[in-house]
Amino acid sequence: MTKAKLIYFDAPVSRGEECRLALHLAGIEFEDVRINAAAWPVLKEQTPYGGLPVLDLPGHPPLAHSNAILVLIGRRHGLHPADDLEAARHEGMMQHVEDLRAVVAPTIHMGAAEKKAAREALMAGFLPAWARYAEKNISGEPFFAGAKLHVVDLKLHMAVRWFIGGKVDHIPATIFDAYPKLMGVYLAVREHTGVKSWYAKP
Ligand SMILES: N[C@@H](CCC(=O)N[C@@H](CS)C(=O)NCC(=O)O)C(=O)O
Known about the structure:
The protein is an alpha+beta fold. The chain has helices at about 15-25, 40-45, 65-75, 85-105, 110-125, 125-135, 150-165, 180-190, 195-200; strands spanning about 5-10, 30-35, 55, 65. Helix 7 (about 150-165) crosses helix 8 (about 180-190).
């Protein structure tokens, strides 16, 4: 292996896409390995913790867990704070996004009636609370900590984009409209030159 390899499912979403964006913004040339569902059961057992993304760096054991991957890329390439306390504050928000995914992901494979009930319950409690806490901890503008984009912003962007696309059944696409700082991070990342250049790639 001569260059970094990011392994994820064949979709521009979630934990994999935020790591691809971080690698791209860091200027790291990497192999973008996209796994199809049929290949996953065999590969799963070969990954460190049974999940994707996995980052392979030449000469090192594979790295797993999106936040660990993002923090490593961020630290090495100026996309994560050098100050350890500020870094921990960013990592807290990154964990907040993981908490959101952990609660919503189990509803994806539910049957129709169970899914409707579960998501309506999330809309009545967990999701507005999640957004409120996210909003409360965004200290800057337009990004999480001010003028500069960090890996935490990529993570927040992917989380917001998941819901506001209107494709999560029983969750209105307007869910985050009342949270201007959260929406501001989403928009600022979407409009970032480096992010745009990733999506302009052939
Ligand atoms: N904590 C891990 C979670 C990894 C995870 O659950 N990834 C999902 C895709 S976003 C996955 O691999 N799902 C397939 C499976 O668990 O078999 C991370 O942050 O990367």
